[in-house]
Design goal:
Structural class: alpha+beta
Number of helices: 10
Number of strands: 12
Distance between the termini: 17 Å
Radius of gyration: 30 Å
Largest sheet: 5 strands, mixed
CATH architecture of the largest domain: 2-Layer Sandwich
CATH topology of the largest domain: Nucleotidyltransferase, domain 5
CATH superfamily of the largest domain: ATPase, nucleotide binding domain
Helix content: 25-40%
Strand order of the largest sheet: 3-2-1-9-10
CATH class of the largest domain: Alpha Beta
Mean pLDDT: 86
């Protein structure tokens, strides 16, 4: 698969261009048939038109590649060296946040008086085993083992005051999302995506909930009550990613672009149908091509045969 004519989508484009030129030539010959009895040869202008049409269709800067995953969405132009990567998350207004809906994990009893009640008997056994192994190792290396070392550490930590790092000296300071910076604050459909969605404070007003349209490589049907809500969130996330990451802010520009949509190797037919419907009806791309993940990886690396091991955030596939 090292030649362009071995890719089905590119080959079909070339055949469509040839068929169009042949049809135009036949119509022109039919119009001139009464005056001229010979079939004219294709002119230099026709060949130039065919080359210009082929180069326009194969322009990588006019092709958008979309690869959604469980954790991240990768999107970019075919001419880019690296794609844009954003979290595959969307935050919309909701009566409750995740912290209010679910119990904190890990589920510890913070009011417990001892370690066994806090973490469980099994954890305590493993912890005691590791402590004994550490003491044996320290004695083997001729290091002093204090009998009350744990109490010394606990008492020291209790006496020491924590040091508050100033904002201008904190390199890991998180820029929290301002919930009042929505495009249309009055609309219930307004939302944040990507890193902005993940950096909304839990005590924000109004409250927001984080939605993940894809989980474990499939459409996340467990967390959504209706299929319309799921598909709408998926389309909204792709819409905002195209506008914010690729700079195509006007939907009228999308008709000038083609789309390559990367799907899983073991794909769901309904998923492909829904994505095709979204690309044609919602985004109105001029052309849409679907390619499986392992096929895209081998072709991009220039291999004709390979074993592709895709280790993702929530699933691993081998092809």
């Amino acid at each position: 698969m090292k030649r362009d004519d071995q890719i089905l989508s590119l080959r079909l484009q070339g055949e469509a261009n040839r068929d169009r030129l042949i049809q135009n030539a036949k119509e022109r010959d039919r119009a001139l048939n009464n005056a001229v009895g010979e079939v004219p040869l294709p002119t230099v202008e026709d060949q130039a038109d065919f080359g210009a049409a082929s180069s326009h269709l194969l322009d990588p800067s006019k092709i958008i590649v979309i690869h959604p995953g469980s954790q991240n969405l990768r999107i970019g132009f075919a001419s880019d060296a690296l794609p844009k990567t954003i979290p595959m998350a969307l935050a919309s207004r909701f009566p409750q946040t995740e912290a209010e809906m679910y119990e904190a994990l890990p589920r510890r009893q913070f009011e417990a008086r001892n370690v066994d009640q806090q973490y469980g008997e099994e954890w305590s056994k493993k912890y005691q085993k590791m402590c004994n192994e550490l003491k044996v190792d320290m004695r083997a290396n001729k290091r002093k083992v204090l009998p009350n070392s744990k109490e010394l550490v606990v008492n020291f930590n209790r006496r020491v005051d924590p040091e508050v790092i100033p904002h201008h000296n904190d390199p890991l300071q998180i820029e929290w999302t301002d919930v009042h910076s929505l495009d249309d604050p009055q609309s219930p459909a307004s939302c944040f995506i990507g890193h902005q969605a993940q950096r909304i404070p839990d005590d924000s007003s109004p409250k927001f909930k984080l939605w993940w349209p894809m989980q474990h490589g499939w459409l996340n049907e467990d967390d959504y009550t209706t299929a319309e809500h799921l598909f709408d969130d998926f389309e909204t996330l792709l819409d905002k990613a195209v506008r914010q990451e690729l700079g195509l802010t006007r939907s009228s520009q999308w008709r000038q672009y083609s789309c390559v949509f990367v799907i899983p190797d073991l794909y769901d037919k309904k998923y492909v149908e829904q994505m095709l419907k979204s690309c044609i009806a919602w985004f109105e791309f001029s052309r849409v091509c679907f390619i499986q993940e392992s096929m895209a990886a081998t072709f991009g690396a220039g291999y004709t045969q390979a074993c592709v091991v895709d280790v993702g955030a929530q699933k691993t596939s081998i092809t």
